[in-house]
Amino acid sequence: MKRKRLAPETLEAVADRFKVLAEPARLAILNALCAMPMNVTTLIDETGLSQANLSKHLQLLYTYGFVERRRHRLFVVYRIADTSIFALCDIMCRQLKRHVAVRGHASQAH
54 is in which domain, residue-wise? Predict the structure, then answer.
């Protein structure tokens, strides 16, 4: 299947979204939210991040559309905006497993 070439501005937008996902703390937040929506206090407990650090990462995830937020009484509750992000993570995990398996076989051959 022939792939269509992407315009430079599209490549830039895709790169920006991948940069957001390139931070382990943000991946930990998304990983925690995959179970259920959570408020900041619960996310602090789940991720071990400080409130200031967590808030900074949540704002970026919100800006790029990875999470949604809503006020529930005194708390702001965050949830995954689009669960297809986990398909991307699954693809990467499978690729990592294959990479480790191939490298393991290569090192055994030496």
Answer: 8-82
Look at the chain and report how many structural domains it folds into.
1
Tokens 């200031």 -> residue: 52
Q: What is the pLDDT of residues 66-104, one digit of tens each?
A: 999 999 889 999 999 999 999 988 999 999 999 888 887
Domain membership of residue 30 (yes or no) is: yes
The whole-chain average pLDDT of the chain stands at 92
Residue with tokens 């789940």: 46
Helix locations, the chain, DSSP H:
8-21, 24-33, 40-47, 51-63, 85-109
Task: Identify whether 2 is part of a domain.
Answer: no
Positive or negative CA dihedral for 36, 59, 72, 80? negative
